[in-house]
Recover the amino acids of this structure.
């Protein structure tokens, strides 16, 4: 296949399916990859002549985590786009924006687009809060569990401090953490591993909060 592509680039001719006649073409080729072509070249997986024929004007686009100044603009753009698509008006809370700005984004822009659409569709409230985010995005505490600060910093929990006891608030935070973990992993054993508690404790807490 690489040889055929090289011939097209060199001769600017193609043969249509079912034909034996060469047809001249006048096109510009834009090629993109997320692979390290120089490494593939060294290992013999990619032809050197094709590589140098394609590599005329290289443009390197760094991953999203290396251009964090673009994240807020991308979030605003796709939030507006999906609000319009689904005829809703959702917005991100300040805490959510900070979490998303700090997130590593291993899936780059595609992950960001999918997340924004998911939040617009699944969040019932107009303002998207930290508890609406997938667990993988929520900041972790030192022991690897979701940080309670994420839940306590939004306006809802600040309001709860005025009318609930510390025990009730802690129970609610614990319930939210377990609910997020269980929704994400669908396994009580996995929840126990993530939160650093025993499987029996997870089952007891799921029963306590009437999740099973």
């Amino acid at each position: 296949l690489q040889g055929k592509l090289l011939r097209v680039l060199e001769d600017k001719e193609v043969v249509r399916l079912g034909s034996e006649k060469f047809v001249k073409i006048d096109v510009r080729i834009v090629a993109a990859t997320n692979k390290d072509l120089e490494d593939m070249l060294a290992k013999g997986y990619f032809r050197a002549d094709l590589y140098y024929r394609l590599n005329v004007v290289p443009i390197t686009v760094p991953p999203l985590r290396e251009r964090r100044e673009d994240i807020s603009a991308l979030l605003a753009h796709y939030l507006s786009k999906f609000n319009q698509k689904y005829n809703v008006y959702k917005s991100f809370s300040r805490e959510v924006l900070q979490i998303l700005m700090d997130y590593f984004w291993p899936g780059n822009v595609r992950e960001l687009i999918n997340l924004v659409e998911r939040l617009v569709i699944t969040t019932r409230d107009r303002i998207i809060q930290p508890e609406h985010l997938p667990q993988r995005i929520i900041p972790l505490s030192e022991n690897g569990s979701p940080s309670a600060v994420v839940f306590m910093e939004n306006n809802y929990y600040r309001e709860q401090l005025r009318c609930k006891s510390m025990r009730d608030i802690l129970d609610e935070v614990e319930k939210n953490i377990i609910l997020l973990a269980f929704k994400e992993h669908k396994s009580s054993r996995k929840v126990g591993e993530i939160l650093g508690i025993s499987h029996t404790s997870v089952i007891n807490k799921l029963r306590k909060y009437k999740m099973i």
Observations:
- The first helix runs from residue 2 to 11.
- The mean pLDDT is 81.
- The radius of gyration is 25 Å.
